[in-house]
Amino acid sequence: MSRDKTRSAVIAGVLAVVPGLGHFYCSEWQRGIVLMLGLPAQAAILYGVGLIWLALPLVLVWIWNICDAVCLASGGKCSAALAVLLLLAINLAAAWQVTQVHIPKLEPEQRNVIRQILVGLAKPDVAERRTREQTAVAKYLVPGIGAPSVLTPVKREPGEPVLKVSPVKAQKGDRLTVIGSGFARNAPTKLVLLGADEVVVAETKTDSSGRLNVSFRNPRYIPGVYFVQARVSAPVRGWQLSETLKEAAPRMVETIYLALIGTALSLVVALPLSFLGARNLMSGTPVLRAVYALVRTIFTVLRSVEVLIFAVIAVAAVGIGPFAGVLALAIHGIGALGKLYSEAIESIEHGPIEAIRSTGANEIQVVAYAVVPQVVPQFIAFTLYRWDINVRMATVIGLVGGGGIGYQLIQYMNLLQWRQAATAIWLIAGVVMIMDYASAVIRERIG
Q: Which pLDDT belongs to residue 180?
């Protein structure tokens, strides 16, 4: 740095009072620009979030800026490590204040919800005991015009449970007692008043002898004969898949296919654009460089917008369902895959390209015979990796109506059905782990 020895340390220090000017004086343009723009921007950020007091430590960075300019003018250079660490500490303190990190004081209701969630995760609703339903019917009479005067007995097969109602005649609001026997022991029971609009009048359990004794008030007032049915869920040997798992499994398959179609659509668009977004292929003329800049800008914009935002827009455009999720994943995937593909093309060996060009081949032939064979393995690996990522994203976009198991999960959570929600969560985790392993094996073999 012989040219810096001709600089005056005093002048550099005085100029550095304005961050960056001293570095410009010493021809350290990059560091000078960072200091001139960075320090005011940092102070503005702290002021904007209402933490102006955290701008005081920036004085130390400002002092370092002066010292560094003096060192440069004297032929040396100060380490930027101290300034970087100080800025990091300032921003960590600001982040702590802005995000209001604290130890929460949980109310009893919150503790109860957390307990239910933990219990649900520990005992997801994936299997249940096999049951057979036992039923028995009894009749009673609401007297009046048009009603029979005598009740005929209910026919039953030998060995079937017995159910009786007492008294056999009742007006609206009268209390009726239902007595039954011959049911499974200690089994959950529903007492249903049959009719065009079935009414569950009682829920109970049979006793240790399989007997039933429960009462209810008669809700019927129109004269006539009414039927009361006892429905008992009798456990039998063995287990079966729960209804929750039967509902969630097809949704999980839908999620996988949703991610697959989203990946395929983004591949179709990103693949040709990636060649236009590769610097080593698009640097020949100003037109090619302009196309390169435009394509890379498109990739950056599509990749920078969160997929959840695309999902909300897609739901508004095409309605709730898997198609909205496919569109969101495809649009976001174009930016992500396009960037990966372009960088893979930029990292290829240039020897085959020059060799093909020396034979007089045009640009299309150069791409076909010199570029494509080198990038195919990486393209396959990136595509599989993107599909893996899309499976996880698909579960999230389902929360806003993008279809898949995420949509089912948010319904369980809204209804506070934590065991059912845990089933969906464990199913998602299991599929993602399998996808992780499978894609890693495939990428290893084609790498």
A: 92
pLDDT tens digit sequence for 146-201: 888 888 888 878 888 999 999 999 999 999 999 999 898 888 999 999 987 888 99
Report helix, strand or coil for 190. Answer: strand
Token couple for 325: 């999720």
d(CA 79, CA 70): 13
Count of CB atoms within 10 A of residue 104's CB?
6
Which tokens is 271 given? 């693949």
Indicate the Cα dihedral angle 161, 167, 172, 177, nearest 10°: -50
Which pLDDT does position 177 carry in this prediction?
94
* Residue 189 three-state SS: strand
Cα–Cα distance for residue pair 242/417, rounded to 1 Å: 14
Residue 54 confidence (pLDDT) above 50: yes
pLDDT for 2: 41
Portions of the chain given CATH number 2.20.130 = 129-240
Query: For residue 167, is the peptide bond before it cis, meaning its omega torsion is within 30 degrees of 0?
Result: yes
Beta-carbon contacts of 413 under 8 Å, excluding residues fewer than 6 positions away, are: 421
Q: In whole angstroms, give the CA distance from residue 52 to residue 43.
A: 8
CATH 1.20.120 fits domain 129-240 = no
Q: How high is the pLDDT of residue 4?
A: 40
Let me know how long the chain is: 447
CATH architecture of 243-446: Orthogonal Bundle (1.10)
Strand residue runs (E) in 56-198: 127-142, 162-166, 175-181, 188-193
The answer to whether the predicted template modeling score (pTM) of the entire model surpasses 0.90 is: no
For 226, the enclosing helix (H) or strand (E) is strand 224-241
- Name beta bridge partners: 204: 189
Which residues are CB-contacts of 406 (< 8 A; sequence separation ≥ 6)? 255, 394, 395, 396, 397, 398, 399
The region of weakest confidence among 225-229, 347-351, 414-418 is 347-351
Residues 6+ apart with CB under 8 A from 436: 388
Q: Answer left, alpha or beta for residue 403, where phi above 0 means left and psi between -120 and 50 means alpha.
A: left
- End-to-end alpha carbon distance in the chain: 46
Residue 210 per-residue DSSP state = S
Convert the pLDDT of each residue in 204-257 to its tens digit: 999 989 999 999 999 998 999 999 999 998 888 888 888 888 888 999 998 889
Residue 177: strand pairing partners: 166, 215
Residue 355 has pLDDT above 70, yes or no: yes
What residue spans in the chain does CATH classification 1.10.3720.10 cover?
A: 243-446
